[in-house]
Amino acid sequence: MVDLRPVGHVLGLLLVALAALMLLPMGLDRFTGHGNWLAFLYAGAVTGVSGGVLALACANAMGSGLTLKQSFVLTTAVWVILPAFGALPLMMGAPQLGLTDAYFEAVSGMTTTGTTVIGPDRMTGAPGLDHLPMGTNLWRAMLQWLGGLGIVIVALIFLPVMKVGGMQFFRSEGFDTLGKILPRAFEISVALIQIYLGLTVACAMVFHWLGMSGFDAVVHALTCVSTGGFSSYDISFGAYLGAPQVAATLFMILASLPFIRYVQVMRGDVLPLWRDGQVRAFLRWIGYAALGIVAVTMWRQGADALYMLREAAFNVVTIMTGTGYASVDVTAWGGFAFVVLLTVGLIGGCTSSTVCSVKVFRYLIVIEAVRIQLRRLRQPRAIHQMRYQGQPVTDDVLDSVIVFFTMFVLTFGALVVGLALAGLSDRAALTGAWTAIANIGPVWGAEVGPSGAVDAFPLAAKWLMILGMILGRLELLSVYVLLMARFWRD
């Protein structure tokens, strides 16, 4: 049996930290004179007491560290349990969501998906994001920022050890390369927090310099660097067209690059960042997609070149990075652009970044595997060693990548069918599954509100999307392994 007490101790400490962070939106609402600050006070008290009791009850079980099985349990538990407490302010105060909607919003935040259930009500005319208390919009952004930071730490410390989806390829890079500089996981986390915080502060300063209010700059910086996409406006980033879009595009790209490279840059070694095959492929594919959309749209609709270049670059980046900001109705660009955007959403960014989806690394591994197989067919007697960035790719890495691709496709298909059976239209079911499993954000369909909110979705559809968001954020297999009886028995 797996001893869950160390997991409970860590979860308790995280809940206490989450409760402490609720003081920020509470203080903001109190300062602005909004009575919603009481919701954060009560939610913080419940969260802090629950976390404190759990941490103290399990404190005597902490030894030298977590076992591999405990790491699997902890990784999933964090993204299941913390959103439950993160949802409390949304239930106790504005916008007073029900259990399902509040949990959906919190999961969407912490998984950095960005799909929201909060929007102008088409039946009652109730206001949406624009009229929420400032503390609530700040809390939604904070959930995404915390989720983005958490997944970078998990991707560098836990997933390589778990050998999930080929991430064991980065184990030597994450530990041996850093081992001489950052010998312990805590120090790795500190370095990542410094980089993440630095990018966030820089982003907020640039946004404010380009015309955003101080509050909007902070909110959008938190959700831009985390590639989450929550906005404080129903029209999303459409409230800040022009120069802020260009800045957001840049910071979304920066947040999608391997954070391990930033650590090396901090230590004075810049070359690995540019030499990383993921980085170069990621930038190339963004360029191909954006220029293709610009060319076809201008040919068919005769749009202005500079306008289309800015909008195409912004929307390709926001979809490929899984940020999910909206600036225009991309469906008006035609079928070609829509298919391109759906495709890049299933690619994602680089490993050990805030981005989800399949990720560039796995596509490069599969492309190289196809090349090797073609060479073997042409030269069956020759020895062909599969390599990535000069390093040999072992069979266990290739097998893990293939299994991940297989499970991703099967899960995606199952989600589409499930959402259709739940009552969604074909387009909403397809894009709902796409946005959930790849943690992207936007959904299109007749059931989607004018602001992109999915509040009208059936309860079953919302819970299926919650499941998809958690599975996608945690690389599928780290969750599926918990469903095996043998995992708990051995």
UniProtKB/TrEMBL annotation:
Source organism of the structure: Gemmobacter fulvus
Classification lineage: Bacteria, Pseudomonadati, Pseudomonadota, Alphaproteobacteria, Rhodobacterales
Family to which this protein belongs: Belongs to the TrkH potassium transport family.
GO molecular function: metal ion binding; potassium:chloride symporter activity
Name of protein: Trk system potassium uptake protein
Pfam families attached to this UniProt entry: TrkH
Subcellular location: Cell inner membrane; Cell membrane
Superkingdom field: Bacteria
Annotated function: Low-affinity potassium transport system. Interacts with Trk system potassium uptake protein TrkA.
GO annotations of cellular component type: plasma membrane
Parts of the chain that traverse the membrane: 7-28, 40-59, 71-92, 142-164, 185-210, 237-260, 281-299, 333-354, 397-424, 463-483
Positions bound to K(+): 112-113, 228, 323, 439
Membrane topology: Multi-pass membrane protein
Protein keywords: Cell inner membrane, Cell membrane, Ion transport, Membrane, Metal-binding, Potassium, Potassium transport, Transmembrane, Transmembrane helix, Transport
